[in-house]
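hey
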């Protein structure tokens, strides 16, 4: 297995969408979030893990990636929160893990109830309760994971011994068969006779050339559509041509065709190894040797009385053919295949970046080569050389890099502006970044100067000039000079938004201002951040909204509540054990009744909604269905357009529902 743990979580517990100074949507990591804490704990205990770090969009590729990494992990760690229990992906991930006989560990962060689908899957599995005792929960998590891994190790050891015993018995049986074969009379060398049905061969040749040509055109079109890259295009075309050649030889009773097809199977295996292991050191020589071998078996039998190279594979020796020269009519597919194979190797060498770090950010992209990382610009030029063990993406002009087990920062010229001396580091926020050294956290500026010493148990990013820090199990806030503005007296703390920050004391949540004054008393079971002047709060198991003075704008009557966007907020009410969604405005008035199976936030005046016929559409802020619910999938509107899927077709529509781009 590649990973010990697959982390199943909700993106909303890790990052939030905010509107930047330009009025654009961007994502910001939530300081001190539970996902980061768990990742830090797993790293500290040297437990390997995989998680969806960059928040991929829902797509067929996304599903494949999730399924692949669940299969490659031993344990699924389910971070149970209000958001993750409301996610439609959570039961799919858990179901996939259970189907593959993986261990599932529920880690309950809050007291939110499992959704029905999650409860159906893990009702008999004990959970780890984080909300009561944080340290005890993390210790129990460590013990549980290590016990599962040790049990798995013992099981694999027993399986290995069993296979060794089976292999030993099989070898003994083969030895007995070989002894019997020795006593059999040796048959004379066979002769090679090729059929010369010219008319049949020509018909097959034309038909198979058509198949290869069609396959090549399809691969090129897929490349132009962005579905595959240039390397993959040449791979598919070469495999098509070589496969036609091998099949043609098989139809003429020529053993060479079998070897051709078997050899072709090695090429995608090499490409898979190159892409998966991010290394070309061993696979490129294999491809070159394979190409030489195929050229030999394609050309050498053409000569009269020539050496038949494929006999080297079968007999371990070569011998002179005494048969008549073969018909050369099917030589051309091999020539075509050799050309495509050479082109494939050439492109493979030219485009050598088999690992990319999440696409371009600020005009730069992290790429891996020979197990080392660097950066290229949008023209493909190498800007930062391949000398780092790991690399993040550029953010505010700097990027995280790892060398010799330590983290630092480089700029877009490749200059290492902050040396790699830290055990862990984060992206810059408001000109400062939190760094970890010898198990303690502090802050540095973009020149590497230490603004706040590494004395904290944890340090989050800055927001509105302040950052939450943890010291001796309690949370407070410091400013950009490192001065402690709010003393570390709280059980937990969020970040400042619109002048207020949520804090937890004695198991209850409230809000403080930048002086540390308690504006909203700590009386709520849970609380979100302020958005458009309102914050969602939870009391007695239900959600409502309050203003900045603590006044209740909407009573706590909803089973679910989201943040306000464009003056509207999603709310949900349980009806017959099923959550139904609607919308309220900033006065608390219910504008859209709770009648939809799913719903998204408003974007450009419209919100996507899903009816109980499993079809999506769009409504406006009055609740009117302006675009009918007839689509299988939809995305939010951006610049007046949205991508939708209907009957396996994906296209673009405008705000009137007109199909504008195919």
């Amino acid at each position: 297995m590649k990973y010990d743990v697959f982390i199943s979580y909700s993106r909303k517990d890790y990052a939030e969408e905010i509107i930047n100074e330009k009025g654009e949507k961007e994502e910001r990591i939530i300081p001190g979030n539970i996902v980061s804490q768990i990742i830090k704990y797993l790293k500290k205990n040297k437990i390997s893990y995989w998680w969806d770090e960059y928040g991929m969009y829902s797509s067929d590729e996304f599903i494949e990636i999730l399924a692949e990494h669940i299969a490659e992990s031993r344990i699924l760690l389910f971070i149970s929160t209000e958001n993750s229990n409301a996610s439609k992906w959570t039961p799919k991930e858990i179901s996939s893990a259970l189907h593959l006989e993986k261990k599932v560990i529920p880690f309950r962060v809050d007291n939110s109830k499992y959704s029905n689908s999650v409860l159906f899957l893990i009702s008999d599995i004990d959970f780890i309760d984080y909300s009561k005792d944080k340290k005890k929960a993390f210790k129990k998590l460590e013990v549980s994971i290590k016990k599962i891994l040790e049990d798995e190790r013992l099981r694999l050891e027993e399986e290995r011994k069993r296979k060794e015993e089976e292999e030993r018995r099989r070898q003994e049986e083969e030895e007995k068969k070989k002894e019997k074969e020795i006593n059999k009379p040796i048959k004379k060398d066979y002769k090679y006779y090729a059929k010369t049905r010219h008319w049949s061969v020509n018909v097959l040749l034309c038909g198979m050339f058509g198949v290869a040509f069609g396959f090549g055109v399809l691969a090129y079109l897929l490349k132009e559509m962005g579905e595959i890259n240039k390397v993959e295009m040449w791979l598919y075309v070469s495999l098509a041509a070589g496969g036609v050649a091998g099949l043609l030889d098989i139809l003429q009773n020529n053993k060479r065709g079998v070897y051709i097809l078997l050899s072709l199977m090695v090429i995608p295996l090499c490409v898979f190894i190159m892409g998966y292991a991010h290394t070309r050191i061993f696979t490129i020589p294999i491809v070159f040797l394979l190409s030489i071998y195929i050229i030999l078996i394609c050309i050498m039998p053409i000569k009269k009385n020539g050496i038949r190279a494929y006999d080297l594979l079968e007999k371990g020796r070569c011998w002179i053919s005494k048969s008549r020269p073969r018909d050369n009519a099917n030589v051309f597919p091999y020539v075509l295949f050799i050309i495509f194979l050479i082109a494939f190797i050439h492109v493979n060498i030219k485009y050598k970046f088999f690992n990319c770090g999440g696409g371009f950010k600020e005009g730069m992209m992290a790429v891996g080569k020979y197990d080392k990382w660097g950066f290229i610009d949008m023209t493909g030029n190498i800007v930062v050389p391949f000398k780092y063990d790991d690399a993040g993406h550029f953010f505010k002009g700097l990027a995280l890099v790892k060398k010799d087990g330590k983290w630092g920062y480089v700029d877009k010229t490749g200059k290492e502006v902050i040396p790699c001396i830290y055990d862990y580091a984060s992206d810059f926020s408001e000109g400062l970044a939190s760094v970890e050294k010898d198990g303690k956290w502090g802050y540095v500026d973009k020149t590497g100067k230490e603004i706040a010493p590494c004395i904290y148990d944890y340090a989050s990013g800055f927001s509105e000039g302040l950052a939450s820090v943890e010291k001796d199990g309690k949370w407070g806030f410091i400013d950009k000079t490192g001065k402690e503005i709010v003393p570390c007296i709280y059980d937990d703390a969020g970040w400042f938004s619109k002048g207020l920050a949520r804090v937890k004391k004695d198991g209850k949540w409230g809000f403080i201002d930048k002086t540390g004054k308690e504006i909203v008393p700590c009386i709520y079971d849970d609380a979100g951040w302020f958005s458009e002047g309102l914050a969602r709060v939870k009391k007695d198991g239900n959600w409502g909204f309050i203003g900045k003075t603590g006044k209740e704008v909407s009573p706590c009557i909803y089973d679910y509540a989201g943040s306000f966007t464009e003056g509207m907020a999603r709310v949900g009410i349980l009806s017959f054990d099923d959550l139904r969604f609607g919308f309220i405005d900033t006065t608390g008035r219910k504008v859209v009744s709770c009648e939809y199976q799913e719903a998204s936030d408003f974007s450009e005046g419209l919100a996507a909604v899903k009816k109980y016929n499993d079809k999506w559409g769009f409504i406006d802020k009055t609740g009117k269905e302006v675009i009918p619910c007839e689509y299988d999938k939809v995305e939010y509107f951006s610049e007046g357009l949205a991508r939708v899927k209907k009957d396996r077709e994906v296209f673009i529509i405008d705000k009137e529902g007109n199909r504008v781009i195919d």
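DSSP finds 13 helices and 43 strands in the chain. The longest strand covers residues 73-80.
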